[in-house]
Amino acid sequence: MIDEKSGFLFKAREALAGAQSEFASKRYNNAANRAYYACFHAAIAALLDAGVRPQGPLWGHDYVQAQFSGLLIHRRKLYPEQLGSVLSRNIDVRKEADYDAESVSEKDAKRAIEKAKRFVEAVEARMR
């Protein structure tokens, strides 16, 4: 049986690969969605690695974002400050992809994937 943080890190890698695949197929909305979830799952893995648990039975998006930025970046200084805005920026792009009539542009999807890649790699490096 896989431990929780490894499971979420696996999901992060899988979502990142999905984002890259969707981008290559010019499905920019799907790419943006997967790029956000790559970051979300990586952030959960990082929080678990730091001994942080969810407030309830599920990991809330606002909670994960606040704890990753506030606790792991600003208080404990475990991650670079540049990662602090990645979750909030990528969730905005994901919301556009999922809920707006307008589609995510190729440029925005590419940027979201690049940020997600750096985010996942930073968490992987810290958890080694």
Keywords:
128 residues; mainly alpha; Four Helix Bundle (Hemerythrin (Met), subunit A); globular; 5 helices; single chain
Structure described in brief:
With 128 residues, the protein is mostly helical. It has helices spanning 4-24, 28-49, 61-75, 86-99, 106-127.
What does this structure look like?
- With 128 residues, this protein is mainly α.
- It has a single domain (4-127), classed as Up-down Bundle (Four Helix Bundle (Hemerythrin (Met), subunit A)), CATH 1.20.120.
- Helix content is 73%, strand content 0%.
- The protein is built from five helices and no strands.
- It has helices spanning 4-24, 28-49, 61-75, 86-99, 106-127.
- Helix 4 packs across helix 5 (106-127).
- The longest helix has 22 residues, at 28-49.
- The model has no long low-confidence stretch (mean pLDDT 97).
Average of pLDDT: 97
Order of SSEs, N→C? HHHHH
CATH architectural type:
Up-down Bundle
In helices, the fraction of residues equals over 70%
CATH superfamily: Nucleotidyltransferases  domain 2
Roughly what fraction of the amino acids lie in strands?
Answer: under 5%
Total domain units: 1
**Highest CATH level, the class:** Mainly Alpha
